[in-house]
Design a protein that fits this description.
- Its EC number is 3.1.-.-.
- Belongs to the GPI inositol-deacylase family.
- One of its GO terms (molecular function) is deacylase activity.
- Keywords: Endoplasmic reticulum, Glycoprotein, Hydrolase, Membrane, Protein transport, Transmembrane, Transmembrane helix, Transport.
- It is globular and about 105 Å long.
- α14 (593-615) packs antiparallel against α26 (892-903) and α26 (892-903) runs antiparallel to α27 (910-923).
- Strands 1-2-4-3-5-6-7-8 form an 8-stranded mixed beta sheet, sandwiched between helices. A 6-stranded mixed beta sheet has the order 11-17-16-20-14-12. Strands 13-21-15-19-18 form a 5-stranded antiparallel beta sheet.
- β9 and β10 (304-305) form a beta hairpin.
- It has 927 residues and is α+β, with helices and mostly antiparallel strands.
- The chain has 27 helices and 30 strands.
- 43% of the residues are buried.
- The chain folds into 4 domains: 34-321, Alpha/Beta hydrolase fold, catalytic domain (Rossmann fold); 335-453, Jelly Rolls (Sandwich); 457-576, Jelly Rolls (Sandwich), CATH 2.60.120; 587-923, no CATH class.
Length: 927
């Protein structure tokens, strides 16, 4: 490879490494606290009916318990509130421990007035995210488990008629799939909470069973949204979860389903942390929030989770969306009694601060609104009192000492170190005073700050830098006014491919103690806020990137809310982060990379076949990859097709031909259209294709060397035969293996046999070349011997020329064959990798079932096995004169386009596109 191309491949590796680094390591450290059990955990196996256990031998149902609770409930029936936990991909039923233990401790605190019984399903840790053939089976088993659980409460005074479900990862999708079952009654589920569940689309669509499962669920939920009364909450992990990006967890068509909420864990009040895919199950902050919500959902009359959908939404909004720093009350008192022993302090200034230690008396600070309403537009108060009492009221009468006040605490917002309240004064024309309540405190510190301000003085517009500035330019704003709150509007920021770094530098004067500032990145169109807490005397860097793109009909602006100190001046600088942009590309489109790799491989493969047809020689893979793998050979066709699909006549023609939906249209519907993303992925794919081909070729040569060390052939290889005698027998055996066991296993065995044959060809060619080279040297030395006569010298010279010519032809044919076989090995390697998940699933469940059913790779195996068998016995010298070679060399180009058009979002289609040119290549031996 040329120096220029090598520099290109190295630079692509560097860029890909930057993107991967941002995805895997470019986030904050894990701030989740570990949840612990205080007694030995026990998992009691629930006895299932014999027919059910026989039908699902790999699945089980368990009841979680600790200590005395576990002992008491070994004798059924139960008396609590049932909650069913569904693990996800490769998940364990024991993951229920965290939420179950916390709920048990909470029940003990209230003397078991209410308590929850946590059940968990053992799915045998199946890899359902990679193999979708068992998803429907899991769904049916969960249905039977729900009916079995409800029977355990039969005869009790407050027997439940439904269960609540917590689903982690794919477990949440299985829970949603319950509604698609024909005999399922929706009333059996009263609440569904999913954690890190990819609702929109599969992370890696490696077989059609997964995509069909998703399509069935999402279509059902969209078409029946008005009839689905199931209250659903989806919680995402944020940027720490690199396995399931948070954009996939937002429930589809949320606006049509009023009983559904989607939120990122970093925005959940009292949680405020990003979780990875596993820690979302045991993160103490999040599980505490979940348990608090469960207990607030209990109906005091039925002692079960309420059936009132409005109350369920109110509770979930209270705990997961916007916490007003008060305990949840179904019917909160609007008017509060402010009488009693207390001290009233009138405040007439526009900005005011109060600090108290060991306060013994209640104090009411009153702010007259009449004069302030004429000058200011907003009132803002913040307090360090984080208890659950009311703390701010609005006085209706005209005096500064009101006996009754309107409780405004429900409009407050809880933040990690403070609770704050923002009032728009014109919305409360009837209020005469604002009253801030300071309770009696002992041994603690209480701080309250209030101010009135005009909106325009605290709202600052800051346009973000351009995408292609690469961080070389920045934009800055300085906050000179002394205030408690600033609202920075980040203009032109609403796409997922945008990523920025904001640096906040504070300069404080007169601060005698450390003051904490809070920076909240607020996204108005989705609940994915993130918080950054820092000391005011330290510079802080904030990463800004999105999980969900801004909808087209949404005019809101992303905001950076700053809760600051009045003694400090702030300088805010924003600039584009190139590494985070690459991270967004990898995060949103990394799953499509195999399709682009195969597209580049197909272009190089077609170039090698054409060079063999036109010149009689097969060019080096790196040379032909540089020549043929060009984005303009693929992208324009995809872009043009996407454009034409916007016209009704072309769409009708497309549907008439029964063509599948273009993957680019799927990405557009998911708001995942990056500018130049296809070009970037094509460059990454070409780079990956080059290095994978280099690794594949090196591996083959290494295996050949090992084979030579183990078995040293001393004879010349036998004459080249197009097909070996054992080929039909081996092909039939592998087909039978694929039919009776697993198609992916047969593909793997066929691939290994092919690699073995290539090693033999490489070894035989090297040996043949060595022996011929030695004969040539002997002839040359003999011809230079002065004892030979002139006649003998001519004879030896003739033999030398013939042998040298034979040597030249053999070396060229061997080199062409090896180059061709190396490319085929590279193609087959990717096919094997894409089929591996079903093989792993089969091996994991081999003790339960010898045959994989359904098998996504079986149709592919039946065609690929004989094709590979023929290719393993193919030499370029035998196909040069084939009439089919020209056609075979022209097919890879349209197939490379098809891989991008139909395989980037459906990876299971990629091997089918690769199989066609391989089959034509094999047929060149017969035509």
């Amino acid at each position: 490879v040329s120096l220029w191309n090598l520099a290109f491949y190295v630079s692509m590796v560097f860029m890909a490494t930057l993107g991967l680094w941002d995805v895997f390591f470019g986030f904050e450290e894990n701030k989740c606290s570990m949840s612990y059990m205080f007694e030995y955990p026990e998992y009691q196996k629930i006895q299932l009916p014999k027919k059910l256990a026989k039908r699902y031998p790999t699945y089980e149902l368990y009841l979680y318990g600790e200590g005395s609770y576990a002992e008491e409930h070994k004798i059924l029936p139960l008396t609590g509130i049932p909650v069913l936990f569904l693990p996800g991909n490769a998940g364990s039923y024991k993951q229920v421990r965290s939420v179950g233990s916390i709920a048990l401790r909470k029940a003990e605190d209230i003397d078991f007035k209410y308590h929850f019984d946590f059940f968990s399903v053992n799915f045998n840790e199946e890899l359902v995210a990679l193999y979708g053939g068992s998803l429907q089976k899991q769904t049916k088993f969960v249905h039977e488990c729900i009916k079995t659980i409800l029977k355990l409460y039969k005869g009790q005074e407050f027997a439940p008629k439904s269960v609540a479900i917590i689903g982690h990862s794919m477990g949440g999708l299985v829970a949603r799939a319950l509604l698609t079952l024909k005999n399922f009654k929706q009333d059996l589920i009263n609440l569904l909470i999913t954690q890190a569940t990819p609702h929109v689309a599969p992370v890696m669509p490696l077989d059609r069973f997964i995509t069909d499962f998703y399509m069935t669920i999402n279509n059902y939920w969209i078409l029946n949204a008005q009839h689905i009364n199931l209250t659903t909450l989806s919680v995402a992990g944020g940027f720490r979860d690199y396995q399931v990006r948070s954009g996939l967890t937002f429930l589809p068509k949320l606006s049509h389903h009023t009983s559904a909420l989607s939120v990122v864990s970093s925005a959940v009040p009292k949680t405020w942390v990003s979780t990875d895919h596993l820690s979302i199950v045991w993160c103490k902050q999040l599980q505490l929030t979940t348990v608090r919500a469960f207990f607030d959902l209990i109906d005091a009359d039925t002692k079960q989770i309420t059936q009132n959908s409005k109350k369920k939404l109110s509770v979930l909004n209270h705990h997961f969306i916007r916490h007003p720093s008060k305990q949840f009350e179904e019917n909160p008192a609007i008017i509060s009694d402010l009488t009693g022993t207390s001290m009233w302090v009138p405040v007439k200034v526009s900005k005011w601060s109060y600090v108290a230690y060991n306060e013994s008396d209640k104090i009411y600070f009153t702010f007259p609104l009449e004069n302030h309403r004429k000058i200011y537009t907003h009132a803002y108060c913040q307090s360090t009192m984080l208890d659950t009492n009311s703390w701010i009221f609005g006085c209706i009468n005209s005096t500064s000492m009101c006996r009754q006040g309107v409780d405004l605490s429900w409009k407050a917002e809880l933040l990690p170190t403070i609770k704050s309240l923002m009032l728009r004064l014109q919305d409360y024309p009837s209020l005469s005073h604002l009253v801030v309540y300071v309770p009696s405190i002992h041994g603690s510190k209480f701080v309250v700050d209030c101010e009135f301000f005009k909106e325009e003085t605290r709202s600052i517009q800051l346009p973000v830098t351009h995408l292609f500035s690469f961080g070389l330019s920045s934009r800055k704003v300085v906050l000179n006014t002394s205030g408690l709150y600033y609202n920075i509007e980040l203009l032109n920021f609403g796409q997922i491919y945008q990523a920025f770094k904001i640096n906040v530098v504070s300069k404080c004067s007169g601060a005698k103690e450390e003051i904490t500032s809070i920076y909240k990145f607020h996204i108005p169109w989705s609940y994915e806020d993130s918080l950054t807490i820092a000391q005011t005397d330290l510079a802080v860097q904030i990463s800004l990137k999105l999980h969900i793109a801004q909808p087209e009909n949404d005019s809101h602006v992303a905001l950076l809310k700053m809760y600051t100190s009045p003694d400090c001046q702030y300088e805010v600088t924003v600039k584009t982060s190139f590494s985070q942009i690459l991270g967004q590309v990898v995060r949103f489109h990394g799953g499509a990379l195999p399709a682009y790799v195969m597209s580049s491989n197909l272009l190089a493969y077609g170039g090698q076949l054409y060079s063999l047809f036109s010149t009689g020689y097969c060019l080096e893979y790196a040379t032909i990859l540089d020549k043929e793998a060009k984005p303009y050979k693929v992208d324009p066709f995809v872009i043009m097709t996407k454009f034409l699909l916007g016209y009704k006549w072309f769409k009708e023609l497309w549907d008439t031909l029964l063509l599948p939906e273009l993957d680019a249209m799927v990405l557009t519907s998911q708001s995942m259209c990056f500018p130049l993303v296809s070009l970037i992925l094509f460059l990454f794919g070409t780079c990956t294709a080059y290095w994978s081909a280099l690794l594949s070729s090196a591996s083959v040569r290494l295996l050949s060397s090992l084979w030579l060390a183990l078995k040293r052939p001393s004879e010349l290889p036998k004459d080249i035969k197009m097909l070996s005698p054992d080929l039909p027998f081996l092909t039939v055996v592998l087909i039978i293996v694929g039919w009776t066991t697993c198609g992916a296993l047969a593909i793997l065995l066929s691939y290994l046999h092919y690699v073995f044959k290539v090693c033999q060809i490489l070894l035989g060619s090297d040996k043949h070349f060595t022996i011929l080279y030695n004969i040539s040297n002997i002839i040359k030395s003999d011809s230079q011997n002065p004892k030979h006569s002139r006649r003998s010298e001519k004879k030896f010279n003739h033999r030398k020329d013939v042998t040298a010519h034979h040597l030249h032809l053999s070396a060229n044919d061997a080199e062409d064959s090896l180059r061709m076989h190396s490319t085929v090995v590279n193609l087959l390697t990717w096919i094997v990798l894409l089929s591996m998940p079903s093989l792993i699933y089969w091996l994991k469940n081999l003790r339960y079932c010898f045959k994989l059913t359904p098998d996504p790779c079986k149709p592919l195996a039946f065609i690929l096995i004989p094709t590979v068998a023929v290719l393993g016995n193919t030499y370029t010298v035998s196909i040069k004169s084939s009439k089919l070679l020209k056609t075979a060399s022209q097919f890879p180009l349209p197939l490379a386009v098809g891989v991008i058009a139909f395989g980037s979002a459906h990876l299971y289609r990629v091997p089918c596109f690769v199989l066609v040119p391989l089959l034509l290549h094999a047929l060149c031996n017969f035509m």
